[in-house]
Amino acid sequence: MMSRLFPSAFLLPVILVGLSACGEKEVASKRSSEAENQIKADADLMRDINRASAELERRLTDAVRAENGVVIIHDPIMGKFFSFVLSPNSPWVLSCGAGLSVVFGTSVSGHEGSAGNDVEIRLAYSTVDEKDCAVLGPRLGKRLNTIFREAASAQ
């Protein structure tokens, strides 16, 4: 009886590992496809700067809010799992070019796997040219300043 159970007991972990590897490849492929779709959608969005401006401001407002004297950040992608609470005195930098993102806090980390004290949200993944940055940057910066002032006034 033991000889009959051994092969199936041995094969079960091998089969499970094989199935999980297939699942990981499917998840990675799905993520890659979603990222490509997001880049294409953002590139299409950037063709109309007025529409892009309104949409990116909406994304920013969804991700960053003032509450009870602090600034709360929910990453647009990982927001269901991670939240960050910042002082209303925290610095921020908006960058655009290879996408559009906002980094909050004083960046310290520099290498993969190192700890850092910065928080980044990406609002767009497609290339944003300098002309569009000149329009989007001030509008989004003004919205960020309003959020941070609101948090500071509630302290």
Explain how this protein is built.
The chain has one domain (2-153). Helix 2 (49-63) packs parallel to helix 3. The chain is an alpha+beta fold and 155 residues long. The chain is 54% helix and 23% strand. The strands form two sheets. It has a three-stranded antiparallel β-sheet with strand order 1-2-3. A two-stranded antiparallel ribbon has the order 4-5. The longest helix is centred in the N-terminal third of the chain and has 45 residues, at 2-46. The N and C termini lie far apart (73 Å). Residues 2-14 have low confidence and may be disordered. The protein is built from three helices and five strands; from the N terminus they run ααβββββα.
- Order of secondary-structure elements: HHEEEEEH
Total E-strand runs: 5
Low-confidence stretches: 2-14
Q: State the helical fraction.
A: 40-55%
Strand order of the largest sheet: 1-2-3
What value does the Rg take, in angstroms? 22 Å
The shape, in one word, is globular
Indicate the proportion of strand residues.
15-25%
Structural class of the secondary elements? alpha+beta
**Overall mean pLDDT:** 81
Layout of secondary structure:
Blueprint: H1 2-46, H2 49-63, E1 64-67, E2 70-74, E3 83-86, E4 92-104, E5 119-127, H3 130-153
Q: What descriptive keywords fit this protein?
A:
155 residues; 54% helix; two-stranded antiparallel ribbon
In short:
This protein is α+β, with helices and mostly antiparallel strands and 155 residues long. The protein is 54% helix and 23% strand. The longest helix is centred in the N-terminal third of the chain and has 45 residues, at 2-46.
